Fold each of these.
Amino acid sequence: MPNKVILVKETGAIENKSIDFNTLLANQLRDSGASEKASIVPVADIGVYDKGLVLRILPDNITYSNVRESDIKKIIEQTVLGGKVIDEIVHDGKDKQLKIVLKNCGLVDPDSIDDYLKAGGYQGLKKVLLEMKSPEKVIEEVKKSGLRGRGGAGFPTWMKWSTARNQKTDQKYMICNGDEGDPGAYMDRSVLEGDPHSVVEGMLIAGYAIGASKGFLYIRAEYPLAVKRIEKALEDAREYGLLGENILGSGFNYEMEIRLGAGAFVCGEETALIASVEGKRGTPKPRPPFPAVKGLWDKPSIINNVETLASIPQIISNGGDWLAKIGTATSKGTKVFAITGKIKNSGLVEVPMGITLREIVFDVAGGLLNPAKKIKAIQTGGPSGGVIPKDYLDTQVDYENLGKLGSIMGSGGMIVIDETDCMVDLAKFYLGFCVEESCGKCAPCRIGGYQMLQLLNKISSGEGELADLDKLKRIAYAMQKASLCGLGQTAANPVLSTLKYFEDEYKAHIVGKKCPAGKCKYLLMYKIAEDKCKRCGVCVKNCPTQAISGNREKGYAIDQAKCIKCGNCSEVCKFEAVGKE
Amino acid sequence: MKKISAEEMDSMKKEGVDTSKNWIKVGMSTCGIAAGADVVYATLLDEAKKRNIEVAIKKCGCAGKCFAEPLVEVNVEGVPRVFYGKVTPEVAVTILERHVRNKKLVKDHIFF
């Protein structure tokens, strides 16, 4: 049986493409008498991108990139047969991801508490209850770790806990915020579905630290699988005596319940979430008093995000200093991002703080979906965040750096935007989302958001005036200052940040009456180029409004009055004769 | 009611996850299921039984490679551990026969 495996993948452009490398490799293996010792396996994805021909030799796990024909002999002789690394072509295969929160996702069976225990689960809880035996020590450990809230704002977790700890009252509550609503973000869902016990354990430790005996898991109803898995996790933990009375014989009592969110984005905001748990309409309240002082049913309550809670058990078992070693001066640990948009490998990535955006996009996530297009910007923080233009791709990711650029870390949505995306359209999308989700309680958010959206609609339909840009900014600042909660205060961010970096694009819509990216349909016209048209008539058949007239002799033309700008004709034309202007 | 003790917890941790020699894991989070992981999982269970192939088949959470779902991780003694992506029921059967039974990697479906 062959004992080595050579994985082969062509990534990006390859010089000398006429050569069939697999055959060449197989022939040379045979010539060297190594056919018995190694087998060749072409793979679908090797985790290295845009580096020509990539070979990986297993089980040694040696990767070579930009491999040329002349290297093959050397690789067979030295690495496959000799087991040695050839330094000149070796690829630094260091994984830029670091999995802490997602450590168990993909490892354990989420429905099995035994699996979680075997992976070292509930060791943090055990340490807290049987060794540390002091809530203050737990808070101290979290303080040492430098952990900040992963829900978006980045408030130091220990400080929240400590405030609640110091409240003298008969009852305190612990709440897990699983109301993940940012478009394109699903980190919390993956953690709840893939490793529910880590959240349950985090809730137990947090509850112990602040002195709560009751916890609520607030999960949005759109995540039925997450709810099912958390239900099972609670049931199993209860059966094992890890939830309920006298946990692990320590005298600590703790109960947990699930509350379902009914699909309102604003319920991710602390005070609205509390109202929702209480069974009231989910609208925010002014702060202070902060929930840590007066929260659920007027009792001190701590609300932590799913990701924050999921990292607690490991902070306790490994010690706060362990996490503090990872990251930048102000932001410690790792962050999970849901990377989507015009990206090759969309999915979840967990990276240490301090990594650059460029590394995330091009090394971890494989670069752009269509490598022929140029990257334009990255959107982070969802409807509360902003865009970061391509010139700032080398920024190190942490709370402060992203804030300085006019965006936020947010809960972890990251959308890659290429040159075919229009910034006005993008701002309109996010603002439209917030307008729909505004609870309507305060005027700045309810009215301001709507007025801004009207202005954006005006601009994207070609009716805009330059004065509208000032109006947008004025309303945006008013919303930031006067809105009651985070939703309204941040709803204008996508508009402000696109205006800051892409004012030219706004002006092109207003002055030039053009959409440079060709997205805003009122500002573009589809036209058939006579010289390119082969008069096949495919466009006519695919036009839903019969806007294309003509015949095979005379050629075809689009009636602009009938055209709805769906773009079908352009997509189906094999000769690229239908262009947009 | 079977309460767990601190000692039992420690011995479970010592034992570790995935102690069986041969196992297959299917990513069964929403992203996986949306791409057809539940069908792949059911196919693996059915076919392994039918074909008398001894391998532990488990479900797990999302490993992050949502673009390649359904994602199946295979560990068989004597073969490097790999992820197969965009797995269809047909590919699942090939994995059982070629990878698990014959101890050879399946071409063109490995995702790193």
Note: Chain A touches chain B through 55 residues (CB under 8 Å).
Amino acid sequence: MSFSLKKDKSGIVVVGVDGQLIVGNRQELKQKVLDALDGGARKFVVDFAKTGYIDSSGLGVLVSLSKKIREQGGELRLAGLNEDLQTLFELTKLDTLFAITRTAEEALAAF
Amino acid sequence: MSLRLHVTALEMRLDVPCNLGFVGDAVELVANRLPAGTLSPRRLSFNFRTALAEALSNAIRYGAREDPARVVRVRVELGRDAVRIHVSDDGGGFDRSNLPDPTRPENLEREDGRGLFVIRHLVDDVAFNAKGNGICLTLRAG
């Protein structure tokens, strides 16, 4: 399975991305997060600790989800980026759109 | 429909059906058969895979318009000094002369428009054929 969703005791949803987030599976991620948003969740952390690579479609779906979540008064945070993924966010300047933490635990603590 | 990779000492060839669902499997199939040594494990894991996924995705979406009757062709040249990824489609070609800068503030929240920008930062050289329906991505050894 590419994605896992877990809700912590305060209702924050942590989404784990296993392998890659690319054009072929981005809709699956989008639907899972939107379903959780429809279910009342407002705080999300996407954890990339087990992610090898993200293509531009994957970046695009994160941008789109972040916008939808903000429109509902929530926030999407990112965590666990390796050095290459961090560079990808920096060169596309998407690091300015997202709060990014080293680990999912840090993201949860900062909410 | 399954993917079938043709491998020789000098190159690998793969025809990918025009379905975006094949991109991940195609990338893994090629990357896992790439001989060790030319690219570092890190560049193979990130730069090679991401660049190939981007090029395939662009060809399927914009070149072949996701037409299931068409295929996108991948050829990977295996040199000692470099790996060259060729991806081509039978579409009319891609006009790259007027692409917006995805890092400008007004474009940051756009969902698309980052593909070629990302590719240019991942590989050492990007070249197009004259028609614009074929791209060659060079990753030098290291």
Note: The two ends of chain B are 35 Å apart (CA to CA).
